[in-house]
């Protein structure tokens, strides 16, 4: 061992990184060789180099169940005459009888300092499988309660970042473009879901129109995401209020 300098457990391999930080990547793409697959892989590589512990929930590969149904409850329902998913989920969470796949995802969320959502934009939103992850995993009692929502949400000590690709280009998603500012699309996801659960939201990573870009440009898109992640732990969350989106 003499003469060997060990960094393990003492110093970040990169001074700007954060060894020991835990990151969960919730990833929705069917094709590993896709742009989304490359962006996910770039994040795993960069964050691992920093010494972060990275977990990936690869939703299609897991065959993740997106439907919010009675099957989510392993014990008796509160009201078997009239089914209310939200009420039953809240109660099952408290009693510890949510289905095991949901409990597993909740554990990953609980352990994470940062959650990255990586997906292609589907109808101005997340793909159904990721929406199902949100519907089932971020249940009342776990992610929020009343009045413990928004800044008081239970996940308030965590960061969240939405990283996605689009079909349309930046021009289409400008304020004067046909689709309007891309920020309008982010309001329901960043504010309605993430901020509601307490997350501090980092600026989104938008990769516009990879299918209509050159190979070189696409490589640059992946590299710029990896470069951003080098200093991700220094970033300040956005001010997630209506003015960030609509002014
Ligand atoms: C149901 C549905 C709804 C949709 N709704 C919308 C919508 O509302 N708004 C909108 O804008 N779009 C929408 N789209 C389009 C969709 O968002 C895009 O098709 C998607 O974001 C493209 O990303 P991808 O990862 O699938 O691209 P891919 O087709 O996988 O990637 C593009 C190219 O990049 C290449 N590539 C992969 N990795 C690398 C790398 N490391 N370096 C260089 N090249 C690489 C791939 O080989 C491929 O040729 C929708 C699509 C569907 C199916
Ligand atoms: Zn907000």
From TrEMBL:
- Give the domain of life: Eukaryota
Annotated membrane-spanning segments are none
* Gene assigned in the entry: LOC100934580
GO molecular function of the protein, one example? Answer: NAD(P)H dehydrogenase (quinone) activity
The record's GO CC annotations read: cytosol
| Subunit record text | Homodimer.
Cofactor(s) annotated in UniProt: Zn(2+); FAD
Record's keyword annotation contains Flavoprotein? yes
Entry function? The enzyme apparently serves as a quinone reductase in connection with conjugation reactions of hydroquinones involved in detoxification pathways as well as in biosynthetic processes such as the vitamin K-dependent gamma-carboxylation of glutamate residues in prothrombin synthesis.
Catalytic reaction list? 1-(beta-D-ribofuranosyl)-1,4-dihydronicotinamide + a quinone + H(+) = beta-nicotinamide D-riboside + a quinol
Question: Per its record, how is this protein called by name?
Answer: Ribosyldihydronicotinamide dehydrogenase [quinone]
Q: Which family does it belong to?
A: Belongs to the NAD(P)H dehydrogenase (quinone) family.
């Amino acid at each position: 061992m003499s003469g060997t300098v060990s960094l393990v457990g003492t110093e970040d391999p990169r001074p700007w990184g954060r060894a020991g930080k835990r990151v969960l990547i919730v990833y929705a793409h069917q094709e590993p060789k896709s742009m989304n697959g490359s962006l996910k892989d770039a994040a795993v590589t960069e964050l691992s180099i920093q010494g972060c512990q990275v977990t990936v929930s690869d939703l299609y590969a897991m065959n993740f169940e997106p439907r919010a149904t009675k099957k989510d409850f392993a014990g008796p329902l509160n009201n078997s005459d009239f089914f209310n998913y939200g009420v039953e989920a809240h109660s099952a969470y408290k009693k510890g009888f949510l289905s095991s796949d949901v409990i597993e995802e909740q554990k990953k969320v609980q352990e994470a300092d940062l959650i990255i959502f990586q997906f292609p934009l589907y109808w101005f939103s997340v793909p159904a499988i990721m929406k199902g992850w949100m519907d089932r995993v971020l249940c009342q009692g776990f992610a929020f309660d009343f009045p413990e929502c928004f800044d008081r949400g239970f996940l308030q000590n965590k960061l969240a970042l939405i990283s996605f690709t689009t079909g349309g280009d930046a021009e289409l998603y400008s304020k004067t473009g046909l689709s309007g500012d891309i920020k309008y699309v982010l309001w329901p996801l960043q504010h309605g879901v993430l901020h509601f659960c307490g997350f501090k939201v980092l600026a989104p990573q938008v990769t516009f129109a990879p299918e209509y870009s050159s190979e070189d440009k696409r490589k640059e898109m992946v590299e710029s995401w990896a470069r951003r992640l080098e200093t991700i732990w220094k970033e300040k969350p956005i001010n997630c209020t209506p003015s960030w989106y609509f002014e």
